[in-house]
Each structure stands twice: as C-alpha cells, then as structure tokens.
Design a protein that fits this description.
The chain is α+β, with helices and mostly antiparallel strands. The chain contains 15 helices and 23 strands. The strands form 4 sheets. Strands 1, 2, 3, 4, 5, 6, 7, 8 and 9 form a 9-stranded mixed beta sheet that branches. Strands 15, 16, 19, 20, 21, 22 and 23 form a 7-stranded antiparallel beta sheet that branches. It has a 4-stranded antiparallel beta sheet with strand order 12-13-18-17. Helix 12 runs antiparallel to helix 13. The radius of gyration is 31 Å and the shape is elongated. The N terminus and C terminus are likely disordered.
Length: 552
Amino acid sequence: MTGPRKATVTGPPDVTVIVAVYNTMPYLTECLNSLVAQSIGLDRLEVIAVDDGSTDGSGPELDRFAATYPDTVTVLHQANSGGPAAPSNRGLERATGRFVFFVGSDDRLGDEALERLVAYADEHGSDIVVGRAVGVNGRYVHQKLYEHNAPDISLYDSPLPFTLANTKLFRRSLVEEYGLRFPEDLPVGSDQPFTIEACVRARRISVLADYICYYAVKRGDASNITYRADPLSRLRCTARIMAHAAGLVEAGPRRDALLSRHFTWELSKLLPADFPALPAVTRKSLCEGIAELLDAYYTDALRDGTGVRRRVRFGLARQGAVDALSRAIADETRQGAPPFLLEGDRAFALYPGFRDLAVGLDDRYYEVLGETVAGRLAAGTVFESAHWEQHGEDLGLTVRLRLKVTGDTSSVTVALAQGAMPQSADRPGARRLPPTQPRPPSTGDVTTKAAEDGPGTLVLARLPVPAGRAKKGVRVYLDVAGRTYEIPVRTEGRPMPLARRWGEAEPHRVAAWPNSKGRLVITTAPLTERGGWGARLSRALGSLGSERKRSG
C-alpha cells in the first residue's frame, strides 16, 4: 500500500473522518498525524474536526493542521456542548464522503486503516465495516469479535453487541437514509444508540480482523469521559440506551442477545467493589434504577444465562435488599467467592440473602446453571497439612484439605494423577472434565466432614505412594451441578513433610513439594540407581543417621 498523496482530483472523497475534540492535547497531535498519513491518500480523504470549546490548545492545533492541509482538513469551532454527540452531529452535517468514520481525538489509526476498510466495504458491499481495535495504556477493548475476517455477520449471534463504539466505517447513504444522529442530551454512551440502530438497519456488516485499524488510548490521567461519569448518570444513560434498543428490536431472543451486553457490562459496573462505600441514598437509587431495568428487560433466559455472581447482585438489587447486596460485594471483595451448597446435582452459591425470607429471592438466582466454576473451586480448595504414614513396607501420604463447599460431598475423591494439567485448564488450575472423560478412581481412603469453624468441608485423604519412579500431582475430583471438576491442590506456602526414604527390600525416596505453579506434587525414585537425586538423597540420609548416632 502506498503513502499519502496530495489532493489532485475533485469530487466527493471516499471517506470522511469526523473528530469530536475537547481538551485532548497532546494526544490530538498524534491522532491528526495518523489521519493525514493514511495510505488511502489525501485525495480520497476528508477530515472534519469539530472543536467543542477546548481550552487546552486543541483549537489552535486543529487550525495548524487545517492551514497545512487546506484541501483535506476542515475545522469547526463551537461552544462546549458537554459531550461528543453535538460535535459529531455537526461533522455529519458537513460530511461528503461515501463512507464516514469516527475517531476519538485521543485515539489514532493504523497507517493503512482507511484504505483497507474502504476496500473491504467495496469488495463485500458492506454498510458497516468493523476494523480490529486494540487498547493502549491499559484501555480495555473487547477482542472476541476480531478472531478472523468475516464478510457478513449478524448483530444477534456474534460478539458485535460488545463492540458498540462508533469507531467503525459506516456507509453514509445508510446514515442519511435513516436520519441517524447522536442524542445530544446523553452525556455518556451517546455513540451506542447511533451504532445500534445502524447495525439493525444495515444490509451487511463486516469485520476486518487481520489488521489493527484502531488504537484506543486511555489517557494518563484517565480523563476520558466514560471514566469520570458518576454512577447515577451512567445508570440514566444506560436506561436510555436500552430503551432505544428495545424500540428497534421486538422482545425475544434477538433483543435478549443485544441487551445481554448491557447487563454484562454497564449494569454490572454499577455494582463494583466500592459499592458498599457509596452514600446510602446513592446505593438505594442505583438499586431502584437497576430494578426498573430488570423488570422491563431481564427475561428468564437472560437471568439463566447470567453468571451466578452477577445474577445474585441483580436479584438483591431487584428486591431492594441494599444491605444484603452491600454485604455480598464486601464479603467477596475481602474473602473471595462464597462456598457452594451441594444438593444432589444442584449447586448454590451461598451469598447473603440465600433462603432468607426477609429478602425473598428465589433460589434460582443463587443456583449454578451450567457455568464454568473452575476458578472458584480452585481458589476454594485450601491445603492445610500433610504427613507421611508408614506401615511396614507400605508408605502413604495423608493430606488434609478444606473445600469451600458444603452439603452433599459424597462425590469427593482424591487421587495421585500422572502428568501435568492439560493446556485447557482454567488459569486458577481447576477444569471441568468433558462428559466423555470419566474421573480417575480414588487412589486412597477419603473421609469428609463439615468444618466446625465456618462453612466448608474438611477432607482427609490417605494416599498410598507406589514404589517406582514417578511424578504425580495431588488432585481432587468433585461433582458440582452435574459436572465433574478436577482440582489440583495448591500448597499456598504451607510447609511440606520432609523428604524421606522407605522400604528395605526395595529402598525408595519420596518427596512432596510445590511445583512452579504452587501445586502439590509427589515424586518417588529408587535409591538403588547410580547417581542422580536418589543416590544423593541416600547419601544425605545416611550421613544424617551417622551424625545422630555420634551426637547420641
């Protein structure tokens, strides 16, 4: 692809880039440089930058670029409107390109972004092309949509609802056909109604994933408007956005697919770790506002598809149980996820309010419903102690564990498993076994009893250590909600029993130790082998015995 060219032809450009600007120096300079350097060429490009009453030098910087590129860059100045909607609308009024593209004035484009996007739209007849975007300086950008190029995707069965920023290529005839504009009285998220309606109306939406088109920058002072809005303002804006979406898509699975994003992101973020520290009146108002949205849009399908952590928080908010909700959030922030109650093939997360008549929240909100809970199980499996037990020629390891589960724990088994955990294991360590993979049989006696010092189950496992050369991990197998989970035991810095030898007929050494991931591993090896760890341990044990005899 070629570098930028000077304007040499007349007629409408291929693409108009609209930049709403308010106090974004020095990021603005990098943004504008990325535009005028686009490989599409200056003759195919129009930049309309609208200064929304900046006071930091952004206005003069825009004028400098307009003077340098008079045939490409147009600058409009206006009094501050309080958000990006009004300047974006003003830019749309002046746009002449076949396509329009919106860029944040603190963000920047990849060198070939516009050329590739326009070419892709022309190749596939797309009304919207979503180019791959990445975050800079720790800014989060959802990546699921960008796994591969896709000429034709749906708003309702793709990750597109989680990518509703307006930083996309839009066919301008679509925008004008439906009179799409940004709501100017919406201080946060004003791009979402525009983007949602454009996606609903579009005849074809495409994804260009094989090139980074957009770099979304989080400013060093986190002064992006989304980061500085207060929670009640964000709630009001989210309610407006959801109402707009509901007015475009009738109730049913498609609306659920679209609105699931707002329950997962916007509404969940209104119940963060610092929620208990908010003023009581703010917490009450947030719960009331969330309850209204739940009553309007939270179908049974959305409820059952929401993870138990969010589902419980929404349910407590819906019931107006502000104190129980505050406790649930504070407890989880301080202690991690709560224990599970196992009842047959059902499992419930024991958050505050469970089966509390004063709260009145249905058990369904607390139930684990087909979701992966491996991380919670791994974090809730605590190693307490271990010691060797020898009976004649037989050696065993007795391990005491604590599980953050209670109720029906008859399914618990403990085994010495050969080999490493598979790559598919969840990051905390546990994994859900595929239905076709049976659990390994327990390699020793296992007893369980309810913990006396709080919710949970104590597990005592006596594991025989086989002779031979082996390296095996200690793993717990547990049924939760009809699925079997494999949980490696983490030592969490607890002391291990000392390495020792056993057996007279066939001397062996054995050691229990945490591997690089902190998981408990048992290693055995014959002491009769020449050299190696076994021989060194044999000499060390022999030397230790001699020293004890002399000292005695």
